[in-house]
Amino acid sequence: MSPESMIVFDGVEKRFGDHVVLRDLDFTVAAGEHVCLIGPSGSGKTTILRLLMTLEKVDAGTIRVGGQCLSHMERKGALVPADEKHCREVRRRIGMVFQQFNLFPNMTVRGNLIEAPTRVLGLSADEANARAVELLELVGLAEKIDAHPTQLSGGQQQRVAIARALAMRPDVLLLDEVTSALDPELVAGVLNLLRDLGSSTDITFLCVTHEMGFARDFSDRVLMFDAGQVIEDAPPSKLFTEPDHQRTKDFLHAVIDRT
Amino acid sequence: MDNLPQIVTVLFQGLPPTVIAAVGGIALTIVLSFVAGLALLSPRRWVRTISRIYVEAFRGTSEVVQLFWIYFVLPLLVGVQLVPLFAGLLVLGLNHGAYGAEIVRGAVRSVPRAQYEGCVALSLSPTQRMWRVILPQAVVEMLPSFNNLFIQLLKSTSILSLITVAEVTQRGRAVLVPAFGDDIVLIFTVMLLIYLVLSVLITTGMRYAERVAARKVGRRPSREARAVAMTTGAH
Amino acid sequence: MPLWDWGYAFEVLPQLLKALLVTLEITLLGSVVALLLGLLIAVLRQARIPVLDQVLWAFVEFIRSTPLLVQVFFLYFALPRFGITLSALTVGVIGLGVHYATYTSEVYRAGIEAVPRGQWEAATALSLPRSRTWTGVILPQAIPRVLPALGNYVISMFKEVPLLLAISVVEVVSKAQEIGSQTFRFTEPFTIAGLLFLVLSYPASMLVRRLERRRVA
Question: Which residues contact A211 (CB under 8 A, 6 or more apart)?
Answer without folding.
Answer: A179, A187, A191
